[in-house]
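request received
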Amino acid sequence: MTTPGIVFDQVSHLYQPARGKTVLALDRVSLDVRDGEFLALLGPSGCGKSTLLYLLGGFLPIASGGITVGDKAVTRPGPDRGIVFQNFALYPWKTVRGNLLYGLEKQGLARAERERRAQEFIDLVHLRGFEESYPSQLSGGMKQRVAIARTLALDPAILLMDEPFGALDAQTRGLMHEELLAILQRRPKTVVFVTHDVREAVYLADRVAVMTARPGRIKAIVDTSALRGDPEILKTAEFAEMVDDLWRLVRDEALIAQGTRSEA
Amino acid sequence: MKGPRVQTPPPRPSPVKGEGEGKGSLNRPPPPLRGREGWGVSRRFSAALWRFVPLLVLALAWEAAPRLGLVSPAALPPLSAVLRAWSGLLLGGDLVSNGASSLVNLVSGLAAAIVVGTAIGVLMAWYASVETIVNPLIRCLYPLPKSALIPVLILWFGIGAASKIAAIFIGCLLPVTISAYNGARGVDETLVWSALASGASRARVLWDIVLPAALPEILAGTRTALGLSFILLVSSEFLIGHTGLGYLISFLGEGGVYDAMFAGVLTVAAFGFLADRLYLAAMRRLLVWRQ
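response:
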């Protein structure tokens, strides 16, 4: 099988605030994501990790450099790259079922097939019985399960996740980690996962890319695949050590980002 | 080896059918429940009644003031006389024919303003070029009292329904446009991105996502427009043509039939109140998903 891996090649991004000077948000980021890999992008807030994800999603124009997915240059959003946002981004005027059906309809699937797929993925995230609920009637964890189901129902080869569990409480987040890994085991995907939570990154990812404070660059890429996905691993010394190592890398950058200005 | 995965138990929707089940059940003592419910209902009922007290006082004062000679009956006919005149207008057919004419013009002008205003506002928010062109026009038109345009509209469209509809249209256009623009600009971009990533075209996203997401603001702006539409309706009918409730009021006033004139004013007020109530009910229905 050919590898639809993702290649970031010298990607830079300029951010133009409504007022004030243009800011260099990403500075020549180069990064490869392997097919089927779970890669976490870890960094302090404002380092441009979400921007990098949005560029891959095709939501923002790439100022310089290029991103390819399996040899095809990214120029616009597409159903091969599904995305899950921190704020869930559910269509509030549609029911749970309506949220799932919308994308399936845009894919041009027949009506019966759309209904079947919607139900299959609602069941997958354990939301049977909530098909006709509106997002405003659901808890945060349930909303995010709907968002994940909505994205997975389109069967994207690549799953982009932008701090998807950042708005959830710690217990719900832990359960969502298990659920995500269980789903990915059944439906393998290439995942690019943005987070500022070191434990989450180590636990979920095969590799963790640590980014610098703005302008964002890749500071280090750490293989964490040995420490992935088993709740028992959370208690081991190796896990704690890895989290500690990565935390130190991120902490330096977080201090720079906070404006202690030790950069210069 | 990997440990067993923790599966969250599938949550069940909370049963909503509780009310009906409990009613006939024998093992639940009904008296305290019924007693509390009855008290709650009567309290809500009396609270609703109290809202009518100020209106009732006003009506009584209206009736009493001219009868007791506090004001001249020529300036303020007693309410009973006004109501009598109202039933005369109704039975004579004047109220129905003029009311129907007003209603048609109001609905035409307002509907056109809602459609055009929403389209302009959403397109302005979506395409920077549209905003560049339209925004200066809106800024110029905004502070202008729209009723000042009625003579101009008479010049252009004559003294028929077209001028009245145009006046209502122009008066209602900006509140709808501006609310649609604000609503569409405030749409969360992650909603738009989610739709684009699921394969929708940009034009589709405008219709499927931006418009419904902006709907709460559009509906709020439309309510403002509804209030303005009555002002423009009546003031244009004062000046244009020989039909409509506004015309009826001014005709009766000029003829010195003051009790009937007040009946006309009351009718317009009741129309406006009813229209707003109906609109609020429709709005609540359209926005059920917000709860």
